[in-house]
Amino acid sequence: MIRQRRHALATQRTTRLEAFTDGVFAIAATLLVLDLTQYSPGKVDSDADMWAALGGMYELFLNFGLSFVLLCLMWMVHVQQFEHLARVDSTTVWLNNARLLFIVLVPFATNLTTEYSEWLAGRLAMPVTFFLAILFSWLQWGWAVRQREALMPDMSRADAVAYGRSSLSALLISAGVVVLAPWVGSAAFLLFFLDGLLTRVLRGKGD
Predict the structure, then answer these.
(1) Span 147-174, mean pLDDT?
(2) 116, 117, 108, 114: which is closest to 184 by C-alpha?
């Protein structure tokens, strides 16, 4: 009985944390568009000028699309994780907050990558930000697996570990993006197309 009381004090329901996290993701995704709205195409005297100006914004559109898609994918991972989490403890909350710290930096990092892509720091801004966000997402799930009886009582350990390999796949790919970005820029994010294959390989090794 005493143990149950301590457990009740140490954990809480996930509802408010989910709502807070959803809000942060939504705001970060919305702020991405500011780079587009603040860009001035300059003097336009004809349709040809307008099309040329829009074509000159290709890098803005590319990085906006990449960041938006990656944010959506990370939000989907968040939703899937919390489908399994019945409760959270303080460590889970702070690992989630650490992930959100880098989520809110995504619009800033995207702007740096677009405006300063000729510099190493500029090319690394987006990849490093996403890598750190994914890292804390992976750490959060790893902690939940360790505390499975308290946080995920309805999920078997084998299933929890197998699910975690998807997060590990994303982490490894994001590390690869960081390594390649100095040479190929945002094109390094194409590595994420390998996520499904790598996840199946990792699950196969786990079995």
Answers:
(1) 90
(2) 117
Q: List residues bridging with 13 in a β-sheet.
A: 87
What is the dihedral sign for C-alpha 24, 187, 185, 188? positive
Q: How far apart are CA 101 and CA 174, in angstroms?
A: 17
| Token representation of residue 12 | 């809480």
DSSP labels, the chain? -HHHHHHHHHEEESHHHHHHHHHHHHHHHHHTTHHHHH-------SHHHHHHHHHTTHHHHHHHHHHHHHHHHHHHHHHHHHHH-SEEEHHHHHHHHHHHHHHTTHHHHHHHHHHTTTSHHHHHHHHHHHHHHHHHHHHHHHHHHHTHHHH-TTS-HHHHHHHHHHHHHHHHHHHHHHHHHHHHGGGGGGGGGGHHHHHHHHHHHH-
* Residue 66 φ then ψ, to 5°: -60, -50
> pTM value?
0.87
Q: What is the pLDDT of residue 179?
A: 97
CA distance 60 to 12: 42
- Per-residue pLDDT at 2 exceeds 50: no
CA distance linking residue 161 with residue 105, whole number of Å:
29
